[in-house]
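example protein:
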Amino acid sequence: MLENEILYDDGQHKFFFLGWEEKEEEIVQTNQYLILDGDEGVLLDPGGAHVFPRVMSNVAEITDLSKIRHIFYTHQDPDVTSGILLWLSICEKAKIYISSLWVRFLPHFGIFDQRRIVPIPDSGTRIRLSSGRELEVLPAHFLHSTGNFVLYDPVSKVLFSGDIGAAVFEKGKRYRYVDDFEKHVPLMETFHRRYMSSNIACRRWVEMVSKRPIEIIAPQHGAVFRGETVKKFLEWFRNLKCGVDIIDSFYM
């Protein structure tokens, strides 16, 4: 298991990139993150059942699992949510945040008691921490899910972007951070052109998030953007032709 990495730490507020499996496997590679504000933990897209033992172990190295009070899901895909019942069972005080569109599908995961579920309205919400700090849950609909959100942490200035910014590594060539943006683009391009709905959605999202100071963009797949690569990614995504923009290429 590769070690956890700290993306931000001011002593009171910390943002962790949780470690990867040491051995690359034939499944979709995923990133998980943990925000620790004092003794209060927030898990971001903790992933599917397959990675649950590794992610649980990563989290336990940082804090007691009983201190996880919030679990945020960007959208409904199985690589994001299929471990939800496992997390509810071990984080007994945690609330689950997920789009209101997907709440009605939770019984398919075996979740019938929804008292710990917080449906996110289409316009987004805020997760208020016991310290008084707040995390912003921002809409990212149709990028790619119809009910999709990202999370911005104003303290660390980290934007957890979910599938936006995702990359697919070549086997044996994965890396934590994007240092050469131009070389990284081919690892993102195919995914984004097919999964993102339209340039209109891309542009609207970039306009919204660009109003916030962002030092790091942390996606759910691939590598983390920091420094100048943040601006380069946002500009690339703003101009991306995707989805319905290129629909004619799928029809003969």
Summary: The two ends are 46 Å apart (CA to CA). The helical segments are 52-62, 78-81, 84-90, 181-195, 199-209, 228-238. The chain has a mean pLDDT of 93. The CA atoms of residues 14 and 36 lie 5 Å apart.
